[in-house]
Specification:
It is built from 13 helices and 8 strands. The chain has a 6-stranded antiparallel sheet with strand order 3-8-4-5-6-7. Strands 1-2 form a two-stranded parallel ribbon. Helix 10 packs across helix 11. It is elongated and about 165 Å long.
Length: 452
């Protein structure tokens, strides 16, 4: 009789009747098969996993950007800065930083997006005298939001950057210490960051600058300049807004400030009426003066007796009349006299200046009756001749520049000839005389000539 083969159906039907040795053989075969199956499954999973990681290998060679909102800059300089491009910032040696995560988030492959407000721990503190690309990024963001006005970003955290951080902190009800800590930086780079504006309750020198402009335009009196944005200033701003076709909310935001420091700002009705009265009185006085002039009687001539000799008197040499100083010469003389004076945002002399305040001061010293505008406002002053090419500028022209990272006018200086200008430099922290280098020529916007 032929022996039964140990097939799977036979084993299942006759398991109880199998011998012990046969059962052991069957179990051994099953265990070896199960182990082999598990090995094959593990091998397949490993191959799939490795191939999935290898796909983005191309991105592993890409280095993340070193800073957010990248902008060029140079470092702080000392001395007069005769041939220097905007460098340094502040006088600390000036009006001049964010830290990027060392590794970008998983969903931030480029490293260009800032951390959100909940990522406060991701930022390192930046404070005065710090240097680096993180400072450059901080300045770029502050400039973008309107808190910092300098001719170009730098990598140095000076007094202007410190002040700009304080303004941002004031706007967002944070501790005003000028230190860009984790909380400040987190908010600064978030979507919740507000643009610069002045509102009731604000205090500081930027408020004083606003009040002085309102005085010049006739909306405030001089004794109301107190550096506090109180109810009186709010009402003055509202009056200015109504007069200039703006929404009268009492907030000095971007549109209000742009109009306030432009050549198109309308003076108050009170000041307008006062000027008309003064003009009428001057005209009347001039008319009265001309009508009161009398015609002098002809002088009687003496007849010389015949035969009498007269000895001619020697003619006295005329005293040379000193050459009258022109307004351009006065303008440049005033600029030269202020070289080395400190740069302070919003100031217009006589000891501290920002760039447009310096131009304003020198124009007034030259006898030019002009309102205090910002650099952008002066660049658009239609009553002054416009020069669009740097090759056409002349001594006494006012030069206007943008930065590499913006198309808007942000700086101005006085051209004194010989490819040289004098300006109140935020990057040097003082008034300097320096060459109009390739940087400035590259960013030249236009020039204005106030002299007709």
């Amino acid at each position: 009789m032929e022996k039964n083969r140990l097939t799977i159906p036979y084993i299942i039907r006759n398991w109880k009747s199998l011998k012990v040795k046969q059962k052991r053989t069957v179990l051994t075969v099953l265990l070896i098969g199960a182990a082999l199956l598990l090995f094959i499954i593990a091998l397949i999973i490993g191959i799939i996993s490795c191939s999935g990681k290898a796909e983005p290998a191309e991105a592993s060679n890409v280095e993340p950007l070193p800073a957010l909102l990248r902008a060029p800059d140079s470092i702080a300089v000392t001395g007069e800065g005769t041939n220097a491009d905007p460098g340094g910032e502040d006088t600390d040696p000036d009006l001049s930083g964010l830290v990027l995560l060392e590794e970008p988030d998983d969903d931030d492959e480029t490293g260009e997006q800032p951390a959100q407000s909940g990522d406060a721990a991701a930022y390192a503190t930046l404070k005065k005298h710090d240097k680096g690309e993180d400072v450059t990024s901080l300045q770029s963001r502050l400039m973008e939001l309107g808190y910092l006005e300098i001719e170009e970003t730098t990598d140095y955290f000076g007094s202007s950057t410190e002040y700009a951080v304080e303004l941002f902190q004031r706007q967002h009800d944070l501790k005003q210490d000028g230190v860009a800590g984790a909380e400040t930086l987190s908010l600064l780079y978030s979507d919740s960051a507000q643009r610069y504006m002045l509102k009731e309750g604000a205090e500081g020198r930027d408020v004083k600058m606003l009040q002085e402009q309102l005085v010049d335009l006739g909306y405030l009196s001089e004794n109301e300049v107190d550096r506090v944005y109180g109810s009186v200033t709010v009402e003055a701003v509202k009056a200015f807004q109504k007069r200039n076709g703006l929404s009268a909310d009492g907030l000095a935001g971007e549109k209000t400030l742009e109009k306030l420091y432009s050549d198109e700002a309308k003076i108050s009705k009170t000041l307008e009426s006062k000027l008309k009265v003064e003009e009428k009185e001057t005209s009347s006085s001039s008319s009265s003066s001309s009508s009161s002039k009398t015609t002098p009687k002809p002088s009687s001539k003496t007849t010389q007796k015949p035969g009498s000799k007269t000895t001619p008197k020697p003619t006295a040499k005329p005293t040379p009349t000193p050459k009258k100083e022109t307004r351009i010469e006065k303008f440049i003389k005033a600029a030269n006299s202020k070289i080395g004076c400190e740069y302070v945002l919003g100031d217009r002399g006589p000891k501290t200046f920002d760039c447009s305040g310096f131009v304003y001061y020198c124009l007034r010293q030259a006898g030019v009756n002009v309102n205090r505008l910002n650099a952008s406002g002066y660049s658009k002053k239609s009553s002054w001749k416009n020069i669009s090419s740097f090759s056409d500028v002349q001594k006494g022209d006012i030069l206007f520049f943008r930065s590499d990272s913006s198309s808007s006018v942000s700086h101005c200086g006085i051209y004194i000839g010989g490819n040289t200008m004098i300006d109140a430099s935020s990057s040097n922290g003082k008034v300097v005389k320096r060459a109009v280098s390739s940087y400035w020529k590259r960013n030249f916007v236009n020039a204005r000539r106030p002299w007709g």
